[in-house]
Amino acid sequence: MIIKSQSQIKDNENSLYLVSTPIGNLKDITLRAIEILKKSTYILCEDTRVSRILLNRYEIKSRLISNHKFNESKNLNKIIDLLKSGETISLISDAGTPSISDPGAILVNECVRNNIRIIPIPGPSAVAAAVSISGFSEKFIFYGFLPEKKQAIENVLNKISKFNETCVFFVSPKKVNKIIPELKKNFSGRKIVFCREISKIYEEFIRKNIDDLNILNMELKGELTIVISEKKNDKINSQELSESDMNIIRMMINKLTVKEITDIICQTKDISKKEIYNYCLKLKNEN
Asked: How far apart are CA 274 and CA 271, in angstroms?
């Protein structure tokens, strides 16, 4: 990976900046995000009252425009005209990265249609934070917020349960106990982490086996990020050692232990550990 020095990175004027903001702790903001927000003529935000807390903390005086799911379509032409006239505009959400389970996608697509440059300013993400502490596979699918209606929720959970990868989604605190029966029905045999108040004072990660889930008897505030472990494939469906796998094992057999070799192969392949062990044992006997 080639990392450019700061002097080689130039933030152009007359662009739409998608600026990630803290998901809880106000210190979790990048220096570049502060710089971009300060130089923006306008900042589009979901709730001006929420955003003002962050902006006041870092003495950001840019003008705010309320831009949420109920008015983002109405604002569209005005914002595009401002960008075309040369104004620098940033888009933020109440927390995290804009346009991911938050308003922004409509504006981004309109900027694409009008050849207006869109620049992401990376930063905090509840999804990345939750997956990183889960201990589950780093290969994951992200759904976003679960739908509102009961039947729609059942359909979604049934659909994503068929993926082998780690599954991540958001759910409101009022809904979390209502989905437990569906979690047990669709994700039996897997593990789960309920992530609440990430990076805040009352941050908590509740780890359970899904089969052991019961109603959560606690006062939950704010959306929860839920992470469900990857599906353990049946041994019947496991792959067999390929010729390339065997070549790799032959190169490692005199340098690493059988356990180390097994762990390396299993990171990328769904192969029975017993099959890898037996092949390693065969090579050692030949030597």
From this structure: 9
